[in-house]
Amino acid sequence: MLVYLTGGTAHSYLHLIYIPIVLAGVSFGLEGGIIAALFAGLVVLGPLMPLHVATGEPQPATSWVFRVVLMTLVGGFTGLLVGRLRKRLRRMRWNLYHHPVTQLPTRLSLEKRLSRGLHHDAGQRKQALVMIAVNNIETVSNILGSQKADSLPAAVALAITGRTGRSGSVYQLHTNKLAVLISENRQPIHVTVRRIMGLLSEPVDVEGVPVFVDTAFGSVSVALGESSPEELIRKANIALEKARAQGRRHVQYSRTSDDTDSDKLHLLSEFPRAVRENELRLYFQPKVDLQSGQIAGAEALVRWQHPRRGFLSPGAFVPWVEETALMQSLTNWVVDEALRHAGQWHEAGHPIGVAINISARDLSEEGLVEHLQQRVAESNLDPAAVELEITESAVTKDPKAALRTLAKLKSLGVMISLDDFGDGYTSLSQLSSLPLDRLKIDQSIIRGAHEESRKRKIVAAILSLAHELDLPCVAEGIEDQATEDMLKALGCRYGQGFYYSKPITPAQLLSQRTDWAIHREAETRAHTR
Predict the structure, then answer these.
(1) Three-point CA angle 120, 122, 128, nearest 5°
(2) Mean pLDDT throughout 385-393?
(3) Stated pTM of the model
């Protein structure tokens, strides 16, 4: 109509027809663009539309034919280009929501599904989110190659969907981590998890190779209408990591563990400041020579004077610090402070040895030996006045690495003792191979041993074995005179526990040292009478 009213096809208004042709190509693709172009070229602006409306002069055939061809090319090209762009966008979107190797839906797909369920399915059905870790995927990669290892999650997913049927949807969150959204309407989540465990106890097929899958599970019930997708995934991850840390197959989320992990995260973030701003305190618990009653040494124990939480015992933060690289800074601080105090004691005429606890992570750090050697030299201490207490778990975690580090430490001339003996899994062969100078018997064996004959026999056996290995023993957890008397009779050399003293400050240790022997001598005389 616009072309006709403006005088015919001789004027430029006819080019406006390309707008609906392009729009048709964009909206309907290749076919839409071509159909719109042919309709425009043959019907709207074809031979029926005059060149000049006023005179009725028709268009030359070459004009409208050329126009039809050009419009068809424009419409077809537009439709083809937009179609390919759409296909690529669909592929990109699919890749965004699916793993490129296993083709499993990813975290974004899970979040989208959870979001839809939380907002639209509230009150209609009960669901649970299960997080699954494939613990041995690195082993599979090292043995079978990365290609088969990459296919392992897909094989696990296939096994799971075969068990859960339509009630379960499997998502791949990481290389070794899967998530399953399962309905709890028919049965509790722990029942379904047990069934999946049973299925995965059999090898899964990975490109024709049977592979055993070592898995751990963490689960959380979906609180419909309450939590966000990110919060649900976080809770399932917390349960999973707790299962892996405790060596369990399945853990269900609880608010208690969540609060603990949150507290752990905050404390770890504050720990560098505690070291930097001198919030840590070092206390010492005396070790007593059971025969003479003299203080034979002191074990260094760290405390944290937190500005908001108050006085924190080692159990409130040290186990968490040991799991991180922060342990090196803590050990270095304890070494520095313990040797500084011991050096001052020796200069003042009080030759008290100092014992420092060393963790498994410390034994794997290359800088421990050099740092200790430097601090011993600076303090002018006899290296034999420094005792390093290692736990059984520190040795058993990586025995070869521990032996290498202990050999280097032993070459410095320091004393090495095995702490908490009897509470772990140290083998007798390790007792003979470790460069030990002392053995500390765990308090769980010492307490009540004077009343329980079986415990007393165990203590006697340990002391006899240590005597054959020429290892003086330190009995931990002495809390009464009867226990001390029993240990003396069995030939134990040293004792430690609240019966003698709780952990005290360096100043208190020095002030009590002189009076300690007199006090113990009076007690011994009274006990004898």
Answers:
(1) 110
(2) 87
(3) 0.66
